[in-house]
Design a protein that fits this description.
Helix content of chain B: 25-40%
Bound molecules: iron/sulfur cluster
CATH class of the largest domain in chain B: Alpha Beta
Radius of gyration of chain A: 14 Å
Oligomer: heterodimer
Distance between the termini of chain B: 28 Å
Number of helices of chain B: 7
CATH architecture of chain A: 3-Layer(aba) Sandwich
Strand order of the largest sheet of chain B: 3-2-4-5
CATH topology of the largest domain in chain B: Rossmann fold
Shape of chain B: elongated
CATH architecture of the largest domain in chain B: 3-Layer(aba) Sandwich
Number of helices of chain A: 4
Largest sheet of chain B: 4 strands, parallel
Order of helices and strands of chain B: EHEHHEHEHEEEHEEH
Number of domains of chain B: 2
CATH superfamily of the largest domain in chain B: Response regulator
Order of helices and strands of chain A: EHEHEHEH
Chain lengths: 129, 222
């Protein structure tokens, strides 16, 4: 059962997701209280173990914010992150959970607006809005 | 090395249905390298099982560990104390590891979390292919270092069948014809004359057909 203030863990690449998050904060955009941000040096560091563990330890959803295709500083970290997210989404479905509990979100560094919108969209999805 | 892949999670959950507390044991050898049963996979699988059971309103406690190797009795000690505390073990080692767990901790069920698939190696990251069928009587010296038993779909020993086309096996255009590979390698080695040597019908008794196999080395026994 998801509470009214869902717990969301956002794994953020330091090249895109983190600056986007900081941009959202600097713009004073609304971010849910239950949002926990974890900085990663690259989307490619979003290991399956971290993502699954976050759900295991009580997160309602996990979001991975990384660079758009072609923009990864380490060339393929974002692509690998997306593949891992898709792999875990399948694993969630197999145990009868919504794959929307783990999502991959490409963002640009200066896109605080998009960051906040994506988080809000995830909250809405979780609450079935 | 031994290549394995995880069993479908539905099957694993069904095996664990009667239990409330288990040990999930990985292995630090082959299955770590093929990323089916190492420490990382222990973590992901344990989390997935816990989340599934929590969701079903029937939580399970899982102790996570990864033994140095599960295929040698010496390393079973690493699980000894942990086994005292659990009802069963889910092993994500190969079938050898699961059996050694079962034999060592005789009074507790040992469940297999993997399907042990074949002997092979990673051709590239994430792609594993079969190389040896452990036939017990190796012929690689005659076949240019390419195994006709494991890599030819029909395990032919004296050249290709009629289905070999453009270097591919008739079963799939994604499968190389082993005999094409053998021919190419022997040619590169200047050893095409090997092909004229008839390999006699194989004595499969050294393979599985002879029943469970055993090697005894008196020089090593204590
Ligand atoms: S000939 Fe037999 S032992 Fe040699 S690689 Fe092939 S299956 Fe393995
Ligand atoms: S096509 Fe080649 S690999 Fe396939 S069965 Fe025939 S000889 Fe064996």
């Amino acid at each position: 059962m998801v509470s009214k203030n869902p717990k969301i863990v956002a794994f953020c690449c330091e090249e895109s997701g983190m600056p986007a998050y900081e941009h959202a904060v600097s713009l004073g955009l609304d971010l849910p209280d239950g949002l926990k941000v974890v900085a990663l040096p690259c989307g490619g560091k979003a290991e399956t173990g971290y993502l699954m563990k976050a759900l295991d330890e009580g997160a309602d959803a996990v979001m991975v914010f990384a660079c758009y295709e072609g923009n990864c500083k380490y060339v393929r970290g974002n692509i690998r992150a997306e593949k891992r997210v898709n792999y875990l989404r399948e694993r969630l479905e197999k145990i009868g959970l919504s794959p929307e509990k783990i999502v991959f979100c490409p963002v640009a560094p200066a896109s605080g607006q998009r960051f906040a919108e994506l988080v809000q969209r995830e909250v809405d999805t979780l609450l079935g809005a | 090395m031994i290549i394995a892949e995880q069993k479908p999670i539905e099957e694993i959950l069904e095996m664990l249905a009667p239990h409330k507390k288990i040990l999930l044991a990985g292995c630090g050898a082959c299955v770590t390298v093929c990323q089916a049963g190492g420490e990382k996979e222990v973590g992901v699988l344990a989390s997935q099982i816990r989340v599934a059971r929590q969701e079903a309103g029937n939580p399970i406690e899982i102790i996570e560990t990864t033994l140095t190797r599960q295929c040698e009795p010496e390393f079973m000690d690493e699980a000894k104390d942990l086994m005292n505390d659990v009802e069963a073990v889910l092993s994500i080692a190969c079938g050898i590891g699961v059996q050694l767990m079962a034999q060592t901790f005789y009074d507790k069920p040992a469940y297999p979390g993997l399907n042990t698939s074949f002997l092979g190696f990673p051709e590239e990251h994430g792609v594993f292919t079969e190389r040896c069928a452990a036939c017990g009587n190796c012929v690689l010296h005659l076949t240019g270092g390419i195994c006709p038993i494991a890599r030819c779909s029909k395990s032919l020993l004296n050249g290709p069948c009629g289905g070999s086309q453009d270097g591919k096996c008739e079963i799939s255009k994604d499968v190389d014809c082993a005999w094409q590979l053998i021919y190419d390698r022997l040619k590169a080695l200047g050893k095409l004359e090997n092909l004229a040597e008839i390999i006699p019908p194989k004595k499969w008794i050294t393979s599985r057909d002879g029943g469970p196999r055993k090697i005894v080395r008196e020089d090593l026994r204590i």
